Automatic annotation (TrEMBL):
Cleaves peptide substrates after methionine, leucine, and norleucine. Physiological substrates include EZR, alpha-tubulins and the apoptosis inhibitor BIRC5/Survivin. Promotes caspase activation and subsequent apoptosis of target cells. Residues 1-20 form the signal peptide. SUPFAM superfamilies: Trypsin-like serine proteases (SSF50494). GO terms for cellular component: extracellular region. GO terms for biological process: proteolysis. It is found in: Secreted. Its main location: secreted. Keywords: Disulfide bond, Hydrolase, Protease, Secreted, Serine protease, Signal, Zymogen. Residues 27-250 form the Peptidase S1 domain. It comes from Conger conger. This is Granzyme M. The keyword Magnesium does not apply. GO terms for molecular function: serine-type endopeptidase activity.
Length: 255
């Protein structure tokens, strides 16, 4: 099999990633999520250990980032903000199938999105719910207040067992493009991190960017330090992938 061809955009962004950017995020300057909220959140795990965030978009599919593919023995944990071992409220379901866009190469390529088909459908309840995603090509304006949540590091700890959430605002694409030295991939949204101390850093990729109760983005990559000098956090823009998602997820509610 021949090696995949890297476009100049991907090469440039991979260089940027190597020089100080990183995939995955932690929640910085956030707070513990309110009990009974964010019931769509999923902990994506490998061999029983948390690796990434994700979110339930239908009874049998979790959406996350493509770079969260950890191979065999993946599972998701639903139904609880506390993902520590022994939590009786947490529902663990093995992943049956991993589905990624054929054009995905690495996080810098702009197709950092993945569907996880679950081995069984969880019973939807007060603790387990789905979240809607946007209709095809729906755009998100600048300076829109949104949230991002996850179990990654807080900057003080390598990871947390209780779900954290923080407010972030969307950033104008031209500003984001400039701060990423002109190598921002297509089909992405920027929010948080730029001239702020709120947002995402290493430890919890794949979680949703939620604006007005709609999952519009998937945490993809950011700067490597969490000090956020000028680099915005970058998310995969879900609305650009709706036709691809609908190939696999039937009766998908859109907004």
């Amino acid at each position: 099999m021949t090696a995949p061809l890297l476009t100049p955009l991907v090469v440039a962004l991979l260089i940027a990633l190597a020089q100080g950017a990183s995939v995955g995020v932690e929640i910085i300057n956030g707070k513990k999520a309110q009990k009974g909220s964010l019931q769509y959140m999923a902990s994506v795990q490998k061999d029983g250990k948390h690796k990434c965030g994700g979110f339930l978009i239908s009874p049998d599919f979790v959406l996350t980032a493509a770079h969260c593919d950890k191979g065999k023995n993946m599972s998701v944990v639903l139904g609880s903000h506390d993902i520590q071992d022994g939590n009786r409220n947490a529902l663990r379901i093995p992943v049956r199938e991993v589905i990624k866009p054929k054009e995905y190469i690495k996080p810098g390529g702009g197709s950092d999105i993945m569907l996880l088909k679950l081995s069984k459908k969880p019973k939807l309840s007060k603790n387990v719910k789905t979240i809607k995603i946007p209709r095809k090509n729906k755009t998100i304006g600048s300076n829109i207040k949104c949230t991002v949540a996850g179990w990654g590091s807080t900057g003080k700890e390598p990871f947390v067992t209780d779900l954290q959430i923080v407010d972030v605002s969307t950033i104008n694409r031209d500003i984001c493009q400039k701060q990423w030295n002109g190598v921002l991939p297509e089909n992405t949204i920027c929010a948080g991190g730029y001239e702020t101390k709120n947002g995402a850093c290493q430890g919890d990729s794949g979680g949703p960017l939620v604006c007005s109760n709609l999952a519009v983005g998937i945490v993809s990559f950011n700067t490597g330090t969490c000090s956020y000098p000028n680099k915005p956090n970058v998310y995969t823009q879900i609305s650009k992938f709706v036709p691809w998602i609908k190939k696999y997820v039937k009766n998908l509610p859109l907004s």
